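thought: fold this chain, then report.
action: predict
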Amino acid sequence: MKKFLVTLLMFMMMIMTLFIPFKSHADQMDSDCFNEELPITDEELRIDDPDNNTPQRILEDSGFDIYVDEFQEALCEANDLETTKSMVEEKGSELWRNAIERAQNKNTEGLDRYDDRPLYWVRQHMTKFIRQWDPEFSLSENDRMELLKELEYSSRGINSIQFSEDDDVKRILVSGFDPYQLQNEVRRSNPSGAAALQLDGLEIDTENGPAIIQAVNLPVRWSDFDDGIVEDVFAPYLEKGASKRADLIMTISQGGARQMAIEGFAGRWQSGVDNEMASRSGVTPPVENWPMPSELPEFIETTLPIEEMVNADTGPWRVHRNDQICEVIDSERICHTDGPTEGAEARSGGGGAYLSNESQYRSNRVRLGLGAVDMPGGHLHIASLEFYPSDKSMYIDEDFQSHRQVTVDQTVDLVKAAANKGRVKTSEGMIEIIEKYESNEKIDNKTARLLKTHLTSLDHFEKQNSDNKVIKHANGLKELLDHQLEEDLLSKDQHELLMATTENLIEMWK
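observation:
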């Protein structure tokens, strides 16, 4: 009976909207401070789709339409560039904070708190206002682009990433995405973006102490990726010696139906049409303002704690590792699950070659470029949203709402499961790595025994808080690792991981 009444109420509200003309905020722009002849993007054009007033209804039903009005008014009142920059950053940050508060407040009224669309559609109005803003003072195209970037970074949570400097607190950094493919369906939501809103600022207890999660939402636009937005999100928290260095990074996006796929490999290839109807088909370009690996890899393998995530019993959808890749070998395109072939060229990772794969590749490419080989990183493709109402005049109903909620909740639980592992910071954790190498026959028993003997002594001194002895034995471990590499007892990747972890251990005990 309850379900029937809820459905009936929603249906009546949708019917009423058909007879009440919606006038978009963009239609109500003050002609004195906006020039509607200035160009806007295909993404922003969807605000005023004459055949669908969904964006305006979402804003009104969520109460987020007030942020559109406030931004428009503030922009018209701005009388110089510096004041405008400060205002844009302030309004963008306020929008992000309010979206987080709304998502994490279980007493939220009106539109479902798991809905990521109010944030998206407010931002589209804001960027449209900036593009068509015609102030009384001189505004160059570069000035306009700086304002747009300030808005994007502040309203996506990028400017507000805050981690503790306490080494006893784990730092987890994740990203979600905006809705996409709205040219086909303007009602689209993205569960990865909704999950990011649930995760940002979340403090949790793990098996190895407390952890704090910071989250951002990425645009579905090739141009922003080419400009380095992914690297700008993750790189500041990857550098060795950084006081707020992350312990795990994860990009998240919407994938296949009713499954959670931990992508085994990201490929150095981009293709597809984005939210601005821009297309790509080619090699992922490097960025200039962050370090890149000396040799750009065709594929980058995940280092997320897959076993912990798969075995965490997180929810209804199956969790698995996906090793599907496509590559070109001798001019022939081949897709398989056997891992990258030496000398082959990437054509898609486990998540394809769209912006989800691109987010994984870019975040982990800069991770390797900064030498953070000891840090877990990778991509989680979460279950795609189903059950959009068959009645196109409705943008949400109980079935859709329930499906999105269970998917988002499982995503949150999977991030928590990954946080339980995080970056290895102790000799005890390094022993676990050696034991995995040994059990998988990646190193021989004699090599493993030598390393574990050394690490057991190191663990003893750590537990005694004997800093001088920890540092002395850690330096001895580095010599042992170098020797084993020279004797081909360790691979280059194994050596890099163990050496980076040992160096981090030394830094912690200095």
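thought: worth noting. Residues 179 and 188 are 6 Å apart (CA to CA).
final: tokens above.
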